Each structure stands twice: as structure tokens, then as C-alpha cells.
Amino acid sequence: MTATHAPRRSLTQRLWRVLPADIRTPIGIIAALIALAWIVICIAGPAIAPFDPLAQDLPRFTPPGEVSVLGTDELGRDVLSRILAGARVTIALALLLVALSMIIGTIIGTIAGFFGGWIDELLMRLTDLVLAFPTVILAMVTAAALGASLFNAVLAALVVSWPSYARVVRSMVLSLRHGEFVSSGRLLGFSPWKSMRLDILPNVAGPTLVMASLDIGTAALLLSGLSFLGLGAKPPTPEWGSMVSSAVVNFDKWWLGVFPGLAILTVVIAFNFLGDALRDSLDPGSERA
Questions:
Q1: Does residue 245 have a pLDDT over 70?
Q2: Could you count the other beta carbons within 10 Å of the beta carbon of residue 5?
Q3: CB 247, CB 260: distance < 8 Å
Q4: In whole angstroms, what is the distance from residue 251 CA to residue 51 CA?
Q5: Which residues are CB-contacts of 259 (< 8 A; sequence separation ≥ 6)?
Q6: Domain 26-45+75-282: top CATH class
Q7: Where are the domains of the chain?
Q8: CA distance to 32, 69, 88, 92, per residue, from 38 (Å)
Q9: Each residue of 69-121: pLDDT tens digit?
Q10: Could you tell me the pTM of the whole model?
């Protein structure tokens, strides 16, 4: 008798099988590759930039292809190098903003939904107060009051971002707190905080992470918008929104605004499509086509 062995799969095939089915679509694969490429650029941007993004030693206003790949700006700085360096600013701050918003919103929503009563009423009225204002307007007012800087722009965006997480988490906690597994834990002597940590949070983590993945592109767009309005990055910091803002003054030099705008567009679309695929894969309540 001869033993039969299953054919060995390559590393690429094994990784492909690990991916959720909703990501293994043309749009999901393209979105994942674009998002991965931007994350790699965010990590290794200064190392792969052809020029110093702050150096002003190139000819001014040269179009793409003459001196550099994407041309130079009004101060003789390389546009491609500034876009690569700006990825570290825009994408990293967007990820930080989403992480902080998710943590704060999850904590507030879990406490409000689990305890109920006056605690729920107080926290949800605070949430409603923030949600009553238009998101961009409130972020602009907060950033203007704090002063123009990247740190203050993140704080302003954080003020308007956490309430959506608090609302979603509270609704899930309300449906979970009377479950049998929560009641069993309380009968075993779990304190409210231990019950939230061991029984509630693991069950809301999946949908919350899906929501966070959908918000990365929105966070990048919001931070770029604040920098475009002069409420975020200060010169000479390479940031995509501020690059588009400076291009408005030199509207005839099309490459100054087109390429940073395309960078923002690709990041927003890639993370939105990737978030949609993750939602369809991880959220059991989503409808599948």
C-alpha cells in the first residue's frame, strides 16, 4: 500500500485561504493592496523619498517629469517626497484618532448601557449634545479655539468622533446585559466591572472594530480638511490637506493640488472598501448579497 499525501500549498495559497471570502473579491483585494501600500509608505516614507521633503534646492514650479516625477512646488520642494512624508502624518494621525475614539466611545457606551438609570441618562445626554452639532463645524470651532496645530486638530476631531461609538456600543450592551451568560457570571460573584470586562466587551469588540475600520478614511479626510482650512498642520510640515490648500493660490500649477488630492482619495476609498468587506465578513447582522 502506498500512502497518499495531500499536495503542499504555497505560502501565498495558505494566506489566500485565511482571508475572509468577502475580501477575496477584486474590489476587496485592490482595496487591501492600496491600504497595505499606504501603510508601508507611512512606515518607510522618508527612506524611499527621492528628495528631502523640506529642502528648497530644486527649481520652482517645474511640471511633472522634468526635474522630479511629480514636479516641484512654489518653494522648490519635491511634491512626491512631500506626499510620501505626508503619509506618515495623515494616515498615522487618522489611525490614532480612530483608536482613541473607539476606546473612549466603547468605555462610555458600555458604562451607560450596563448600569442604566441616571448614569445612562447623563452620558447619553452628553452624547446627544455633541451629536446635535454638525461634525465639521464643531471640529472647526474646537480646533480654532484650541489653536492651529496637528495635536489640536486631533483633539478637535476626537471631540466629534467618539459619540457614534458610544451610541452603537450602548445599544449592543443593552441587548447583552440581560443574557444568560452575564447573569451566570453575576451569580458566580462577578463585580459589575469584571462582568463588563469578561462578558460584555468581548461580544462588542467585533462590531466595534468593523466600525473603526470604516472610520479610518473618514478620519483622514477630516484631518486633511482641518489642515486645508489652516487649523491643522503648520508650514513646513508636509501634510496632504495643507498641500492642497497651498495649491489653491497657484491654481494654474495643476500638479500641486491634483497629486495630494489623489493621495487623499485613494486612502479614503481603499479603507472604505476594506471596511465594507470586513463588515460583511465579521458582522453577523449584515446582509450578504
A1: yes
A2: 6
A3: yes
A4: 24
A5: 70, 79, 80, 83
A6: mainly alpha
A7: 26-45+75-282
A8: 10, 18, 9, 10
A9: 888 998 889 999 999 998 988 899 999 999 999 999 999 998 988 888 888 89
A10: 0.83
